[in-house]
Design a protein that fits this description.
The chain has 706 residues and is of the alpha/beta class. The chain has helices at residues 2-9, 13-24, 26-35, 39-51, 60-75, 86-115, 126-136, 192-195, 289-301, 313-316, 327-338, 366-374, 407-421, 423-427, 468-481, 515-542, 565-570, 582-590, 618-631, 647-657, 678-681, 683-696, and strands spanning 139-141, 147-149, 203-204, 251-252, 271-274, 306-312, 342-348, 379-381, 387-392, 431-436, 548-552, 594-597, 636-639, 670-673. Helix 13 runs parallel beside helix 16 and helix 16 (515-542) runs parallel beside helix 18.
């Protein structure tokens, strides 16, 4: 064995080439031998009997010689020729060489794990090593091996996935058509991976520099996102090689690392982590308590302040009105309390399932669904008459259609039951905040962009006011205005996936800014404000003395157009000549409610010549809503919209949480990370998350890039 290994180690390049040729033709030769009498099959059996693979200890070389000699005797007949002896010997040599290669690979992997902090799986192979090194150098490596420079990130994979969106409690679009880019992440750096790029030169970039990819929320260990299509594949570029033979125009310098602000000594901002959507199952049982306990202990070790969880109406009051089952939540709360973590709770009055990022299905209560089968107008309805059972229409807030109760009475009874059941946790401050669900995904908005009805980013969506209760309210408003002809929805708004310029209502100078358009949009947006006011005023009674929050959606696409069409259909009357969030924050202020803003992790991409649509601007949207809240003195909390696993996204959250040079020293009251997952628990990802928590707490970090 030792002699064989030494001989193989000392093989020349010609020998290796010959070996490769032997391996290439091996299958063909095996097939030929089978046709000539099965000689090779007999030899294989003899090899197995005499010594397995020939790799045994002791007389491995002698055994192999005997097998080879016997093989020559068998094939030495006319027509066969002794040339047929080569495959068996070459097979054994190939096995020896392959084992040597595996041993070398194992040592490389062990060294990288131990000294390089690479997140390699236990059964990693050389492909994993190459991918890890490429990512370290600032390249993007997809799961199928497709590789391209991080500088080229500017668009989503055509028809492919964007980032796992958050949850049923956060509405962020992900699917991208080929001609449109999700405005997810970019500033001076095209992607999170560019930040981690080491300052090296001589990286080959294919001649067509624009890439069809935009991994806006990916990290070294994640490229999966949410959507219906598959990522289109491209030819991978080459890293390294002979740089001298490459055209100079194809050489680019990877930018230096992004400098970071030093948040040491800044105000302490608590960090919470949202628990998985399915942590409580449909029977109101805690799923995998042992596994969850381990994860919670890891979060505790990182000094996370607490966790957030959805309390689903469809689970707790599933079978009959005012029959509440809190068993699973009791066990969960006790577990969190024993770890001395704090708790934020979402009163989730919406359906889970059917939106981007939803990995479980939690419908509305069964008894509500039964009512909906006979009276579908309790749900929001679009212009085509399609009903959306994701949540109840605001038209029944004051209609006794739910077994003798109005919708707001149903919400209040649920919240009051929760307060009574967990009163002790309110008293000792364990429950630090209640977020009240006010619409689809728990957000104060209309379900204007339902995936189940065919909406895809960046469609403008549709108005949702065609159930008979909303139409009755619209008719009353039109009569009060003295124009009964206005008791209708606009008919020139296109469909879910239209773009503003394709419609007569949303285009520049369109009907949205005419007399009827202004009337309709005022009524439509005021219905949203009134609904929020009704539910939050009752929440204030149920949770008196506790911090209450309401969440606004980040509808940032078409923000740079005059009409802000996607915001209009969602209920935010925010065209370029009007502040659509002032009335909302004023209502929140009256009820003493904190404002929850999403999208604080997103950057606005630089516009690319071939991809100008959809004129998205999440940064300006967040800035507008944030200042609207702070101008009236509202406490502001926030959460990320897309998976946040890299330093660029974390830095963006930090910049929004603690604005630089704010003369009033304002900052967010808390931040909730969406969400706890095995991906976050991976070593490298969690190290980055732990660093982020320290900076949110105002602590110093040692590896600050300045």
């Amino acid at each position: 064995m030792a002699t064989d290994m030494q001989r193989l180690v000392g093989m020349s390049e010609d020998d290796e080439e010959e070996m490769g040729m032997g391996m290439k033709g091996e299958d063909d030769e095996d097939e030929d031998y089978d046709e000539n009498g099965g000689v090779l099959g007999n030899v294989s059996r003899m090899v197995e009997i005499d010594g397995g693979s020939g790799m045994g200890t002791g007389a491995g070389g002698d055994s192999r010689f005997q097998q080879h000699h016997l093989f020559q005797e068998q094939v030495g007949s006319p027509g066969g020729g002794t040339r047929r002896s080569r495959p068996v010997e070459e097979k054994e040599r190939t096995k020896l060489r392959e084992r040597r290669r595996r041993a070398i690979t194992a040592r490389i992997l062990a060294g990288l794990r131990r000294h390089g902090n690479y997140n390699l799986r236990v059964r990693a192979d050389i492909n994993d090593v190459i991918a890890a090194l490429a990512r370290e150098a600032g390249w993007v490596v997809l799961p199928d091996g497709t590789t391209f420079p991080s500088r080229s990130q500017g668009q989503m994979p055509a028809g492919g996935n964007s980032a796992v969106v958050t949850s049923s409690s956060s509405h962020v679009p992900s699917q991208q058509p080929p001609s449109v880019s999700l405005k997810g992440v970019a500033s001076d750096y095209g992607s999170p991976l560019e930040y981690n790029a080491c300052p090296m030169k001589g990286v080959f970039v294919p001649a067509p520099s624009p890439s069809p990819y935009d991994l806006s929320s990916s990290s070294r260990s994640q490229t999966s996102m949410v959507g219906d299509g598959e990522v289109q594949r491209d030819n991978p570029p080459v890293v390294g090689g002979s740089i001298d033979t490459i055209n100079e125009k194809q050489i680019v310098d990877i930018p230096p690392r992004l400098s970071e602000r030093d948040f040491a000594g800044t105000p302490y901002v608590p960090v919470y982590v949202m628990l998985p959507l399915g942590v409580i199952n449909i029977k109101c049982e805690l799923v995998d308590p042992d596994g969850l306990l381990k994860q919670l202990k890891v979060l505790k070790s990182a000094n996370v302040d607490g966790v957030m969880v959805d309390c689903w109406w469809g689970i707790v009051e599933a079978h009959a009105p005012q029959e509440y089952n809190w068993n699973g939540y009791k066990r969960l709360f006790q577990m969190v309390h024993e770890l001395k973590l704090k708790l934020q709770v979402v009163m989730s009055f919406h359906e889970c399932g059917g939106n981007f990022g939803d990995d479980v299905c939690i419908p509305l209560p069964h008894w509500v669904a039964e009512i909906g089968r006979s009276n579908p107008d309790i749900f929001f309805t679009d212009r085509e008459g399609r009903h959306n059972p994701e949540c109840l229409s605001w038209g029944i807030d004051k209609e006794r259609v739910l077994r003798g109760r109005t919708a707001v009475e149903v919400y209040f009874d649920f919240m009051r039951s929760f307060r009574i059941e967990f009163d002790e946790y309110f008293e000792d401050g364990f429950i630090s905040m209640i977020e009240v669900g006010l619409g689809p995904c728990g957000e104060l908005r209309y379900p204007s962009s339902p995936v189940k009805h065919g909406w895809r980013y960046p469609g403008v969506g549709e108005f949702q006011c065609y159930d008979r209760y909303m139409l009755k309210n619209l008719r009353k408003a039109a009569e009060a205005r003295g124009h009964t002809i206005w008791a209708r929805g606009p008919d020139n708004v296109g469909n879910y996936n239209s773009q503003p310029h394709e419609t007569g209502f949303f285009c520049d100078g369109g009907d949205y800014d005419g007399f009827y358009g202004r009337f309709f949009l005022n009524w439509y947006s005021q219905a949203l404000v009134d609904h929020g006011n009704r539910v939050l005023s009752l929440a204030k009674l149920a949770f008196e003395g506790s911090c209450i929050a309401a969440k606004l959606s980040g509808i940032y696409w078409w923000y740079k157009t005059a009409s802000h069409a996607a915001e209009l259909t969602a209920g935010y009357y925010n065209p370029c000549n009007r502040d659509g969030y002032a009335a909302i924050v004023a209502m929140l202020k009256r009820n003493g409610v904190s404002l929850n803003i999403a999208c604080v992790d997103l950057h606005t991409l630089n516009q690319h010549e071939g991809f100008p649509e959809p004129f998205a601007d999440p940064e300006r949207l967040v800035w507008q809503v944030l200042n609207a809240g702070w101008d009236v003195g509202l406490p502001v909390v926030s959460e990320n919209s897309l998976p946040c696993l890299n330093r660029v996204s974390y830095n963006k959250v930090l910049d929004n949480t603690k604005p630089m040079n704010d003369p009033d020293g304002r900052h967010f009251s808390s931040f909730t990370y969406l969400r706890l997952s095995p991906l976050l628990m991976e070593r490298q990802n969690f190290i980055e998350f732990e660093r982020f928590v320290k900076r949110m707490h105002g602590e110093a970090v040692l590896d600050l890039q300045v």
